[in-house]
């Protein structure tokens, strides 16, 4: 799936994923925008993430790039929530993560 893409496009995709995860962490830290500076930083991260994603899709199919961006963002954000914020994931949450992983594998072999 990713082996046919230019390394620069992959770097843009991973930057988009990292910025999206950063935005999610900042949103949590903003306490519902009560800490407006952190909330503003979260919005800027989202804008930067979409900018990076736009550069990534110049060389990666939109369906593949968006699926990876969304899925990896969800999965990594879940683990960040567990380790940084002490959040718990129930059986339904783990099932959902498993479905995302299967979906990413299906995209790889499509």
TrEMBL record:
The chain crosses the membrane at residues 6-27, 39-60, 66-86, 93-109. Keywords: Cell inner membrane, Cell membrane, Membrane, Transmembrane, Transmembrane helix. Forms a complex with MdtJ. It comes from Vitreoscilla stercoraria. Belongs to the drug/metabolite transporter (DMT) superfamily. Small multidrug resistance (SMR) (TC 2.A.7.1) family. InterPro entries: EmrE-like, Small_drug/metabolite_transptr, Small_multidrug_res. SUPFAM superfamilies: Multidrug resistance efflux transporter EmrE (SSF103481). This is Spermidine export protein MdtI. It is a multi-pass membrane protein. The keyword Transmembrane helix applies. It is found in: Cell inner membrane; Cell membrane. It holds the Pfam family Multi_Drug_Res. Its main location: membrane.
């Amino acid at each position: 799936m990713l082996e046919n893409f230019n390394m620069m496009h992959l770097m843009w995709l991973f930057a988009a994923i990292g910025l999206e995860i950063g935005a999610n962490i900042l949103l949590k830290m903003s306490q519902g925008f009560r800490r407006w500076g952190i909330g503003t930083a979260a919005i800027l991260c989202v804008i930067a993430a979409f900018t990076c994603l736009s550069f990534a899709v110049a060389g990666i199919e939109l369906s593949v790039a968006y699926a990876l961006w969304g899925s990896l963002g969800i999965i990594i954000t879940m683990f960040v929530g567990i380790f940084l914020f002490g959040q718990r994931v129930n059986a339904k949450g783990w099932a959902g993560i498993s479905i995302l992983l299967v979906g990413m594998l299906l995209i790889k072999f499509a």
